[in-house]
Amino acid sequence: MGKTRHKKFKIDRPKPTALISVKEAENELEQDNISSNGGIVQSLIEKLNGPSEEERECSCTTIANLVSQPSAVKLLLQNNIVKILAPVILDKNPEIQVKALGALRNLSVDGGETVCQEMVKKDVLTPLVAFLKQVKSYFIQFIVHVSWAF
Measured in Å, how far apart are the chain's first and last C-alpha atoms? Predict the structure, then answer.
């Protein structure tokens, strides 16, 4: 006689981060009329400004993935995402800094010249230059530390 396996039924568990996934956000954007629905973007903006590092990181990642849709780029620009995302470059958590830079990079690539002009108008270069100076000082400290090791 053979052994039979019992089928396990999965129970929907609440999400530990309480954030929507990128796939869910993209599906909601496709299903709803994007020009009239800014609820998803508003929740992302709220989470970008929130105290939780995990929420800020997830929001940056979601924005980076959403910009592949042209209608989402328009909606993000209408909600002033460039100005909100720029200070996140100088976050104390390096992972959030990288995610914010990735979101701005994807936004500039997928949005084209109009988004790049908007970035210049919203003064994204100031926090970017400050970030590069910060990285430069870390790099110099690293080189000095390594040179002493030899």
Answer: 69
Cβ(95)–Cβ(130) below 8 Å: no
What does the chain come to in residues?
Answer: 150
The one-digit pLDDT tens for each residue of the chain (150 residues) are 677 777 776 777 777 777 777 788 777 776 664 444 467 888 888 999 999 999 999 999 999 998 888 888 888 888 899 999 999 999 999 999 999 999 999 999 998 898 999 999 999 999 999 999 988 888 888 888 777 666
The distance from CA 26 to its chain's CA centroid, rounded to whole angstroms, is 14
Place of tokens 């800014």: 38
Query: Rounded to an integer, what distance in angstroms lies between the CA atom of residue 95 and that of residue 98?
Result: 5
pTM for the full model?
0.69
The dihedral built from the CA positions of residue 28, 119, 128 and 91, taken in this order, carries a sign that is negative
| Tokens representing residue 80 in the block | 């002033």
Contact 41, 79 (CB under 8 A): yes
